[in-house]
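DM from R.C. (forwarded with permission)

"hey, sorry to bug you on a friday — could you get me a structure for this? deadline for the figure draft is monday and I only need the backbone to look sensible"
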Amino acid sequence: MTIKRLFVETNWDDALLPEVAGTSCRGMFGRPAGGVLTEAAAGHIRTVKRGGLAFSYALDELCLDNRELTREGNRRLRQLLDKLAALEVDEVIVSSFFLLELIKDKYPSLAVVMSDTVAFDSVQRVREFMQLGARYVWLRDMNRDFKQLKTLAGTSPGVCRLVANRACGFDCALAITHSNERSHTRDDHTGTDLLVADLCVQRMLREPAALMKARWIRPEDLEFYATRGFSDFVIYAPTPETVRIVDAVRAYDSAESPANLLDILSLPDDVRFDQVRQAVQLDTAQLEDFVQGFGDKDCRRADCDVCGYCSAAAAAAVRPRSAK
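My reply, with the result:
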């Protein structure tokens, strides 16, 4: 087995940490509820660090209302970044060029990671952010574009971390709108409905092939990617529940999927994704060699209706939850 490193989203529960000890987890990442770095959150970061894991703090809203360009907004960001540096946080995950520039200029101890919300879809975009000073980039939509991945493995080795368990639609027309909506409601505790999330879920229920087109990676397929030069994988928390996060980590650590792959997949608005989990299941037994079947396919230039690969796979793998 080649080297494998997992970077796992935390739910800020210290009980999670001993459960991932001894696995391939090399780092945790996240943002506290409400976006406030409380003493409890700082204590959790210290505990992560004492356990020998790296910590990455998420500041990856796609839109910051241009607050980062104002004197007051910049001052507040500097206050937070000062605290993160004092906590010896290893990385800050961003989507904003201005945050990348600020951190590189003022906080050399903090590595900058470009979030998958930037929607990397070309080698050139990855290379450009590296030239601007990013240390790592997270990829999702490129997970099955093996020509581009081969180029990146050769020209930018060790730079890319592949997001393994997101069920977001491939090349989704609503992606930017969704990211903006989340940016403006991420720290909102008023119960605001995220309308785009509902649209995504309804599409998955209406079109099972959408689940197959999502660029998730089966635990069993990590080796397939590792032999192609990728050893770092991002595991989003499929739920705030510690036991389910542990299940996802152990699945990817052992390279063994649960019978229903949806149990370890996630969406940014995971409560709504439960509607999909309750309605259908994604039969892992039907996914053998599925990712390998993409081969030289160029999904960005192909017509899905003509190709039909994911639709045929969905007919076999996506079944009603009640089905035996």
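R.C.: lifesaver. Residues 204 and 211 are 6 Å apart (CA to CA).
me: no worries. The longest strand covers residues 25-30.
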